[in-house]
Every structure is written in C-alpha cells, then in structure tokens.
User: What shape does this take?
Amino acid sequence: MLRIPCPICGLRDETEFSYGGDASVKRPAMAETDPKAWMDYVFYRGNPRGRHLEYWHHVQGCRQWLVVERDTVSHVISGCRLAREVSP
Ligand SMILES: [Zn+2]
Assistant: This one.
C-alpha cells in the first residue's frame, strides 16, 4: 500500500485517494486539427519505468487534486504538490 504525503492532511493511506492518471500528458492547443494529436492525448499513455508524475484526488480528505512523483518500480514517492500550484 502506498502512503501519500498530502500537503494539507499529511501522510495518508492510498485508500483515501483516487488515481487520476498521468500528470505529464500535455493537452493539444484548442486550435489543433490533427486527429492523431487528439487521439494520442485521449487514448495513448506511456508505461514508464522509474520516476513518473501522477494525479491523485484526496477523496476522503481535503478533496484536493495532487501531483505525486512516484517511482513505478520501487513505489517510492519523492514529491507531492497541490495540482493547482503546478503549472501545466
Ligand atoms: Zn489531503
């Protein structure tokens, strides 16, 4: 089980959170007309080995969206910030 260090609530069990997906995906510009760019944005994700940025929602706590930096191999969390304070 993961223990996620919420910046507001402190260290909490993973069961209080809901996974929100890859936080490193960049949305195409609204003027983008290439369907492949939108298909990549909506459907395709990498499966990185190592450090990875993820969205987590603290559903049973402060209800804030977080950006968590986690190693996908060791599950060590090396950073956690409020998503609203992270520039896209
Ligand atoms: Zn929290």
The longest strand covers residues 51-57.
